[in-house]
Design goal:
Blueprint (H helix, E strand, L loop, with lengths): L1 E5 L5 H15 L6 H5 L2 H14 L5 E8 L2 E13 L3 E9 L8 H16 L4 E7 L3 H9 L3 E9 L5 E10 L6
Parallel strand pairs: 4-5
Antiparallel strand pairs: 1-2, 2-3, 3-4, 5-7, 6-7
Helix pairs in contact: 1-3
Amino acid sequence: MIKLRPAQITDSSAIAALHADNWRRTYRGIYSDAFLDRDLDGNRSALWHGRLSTPADNQYVTLAVEQETVAGFACLYLDNDPTFGSLLDNLHVVARFRNQGIGRLLMQDCWRLVAEKATIKTMYLWVFEANQNARSAYERLGGTNVETVQHQNEDGSQAMICRYVWNELTLTV
C-alpha cells in the first residue's frame, strides 16, 4: 500500500537516484547524451542534498513509499509566481510503479497543500514539449497549456517547454 510522507534529508539519495534515472529514460534527445551519461547522479545528488538540508520556506517535498521503498516524489513551491501560483517543480514515479495512480496521488497531495496553505489557489508546472506522455497525463488531470517558450537546458542545449496550469475549477485529480 502506497503511503505519502514528507521527505527528509535521509531521503536525498533515493530521490536523486530516481530523478536521474527518470531523466535518462525520458530526456534522451532533449538533453545531450554526454550530459545524461556523465555525472548526472552526482548532479542530482547535490541538488537534492541542498534542497533537503536547507529547504526554502515555501518548499514541500512529498514521498510516495511502499514498505519503505520510494515509489515517487513531488516537489512543490507554494506561491512561487504572482500570476500562476505554486510551482510543481518535480513529479517523478519509479518506472515499475507507473500506471498505478501514484502520480495522481502525489498531484492530489500537492493540490491539498495549495488549497490549505497557498495565497494564490493555482498550481503550475513546466514540461518539455517533446514529453508527450507527461503532457497527455497532465491534460487528463485537467491541466491547461497556457504557453510554450524556448528554454535553455542545464547542458546548454535549447528545448521548447510548456506551462501547464490548474486552478480550483480545472484540477480533476
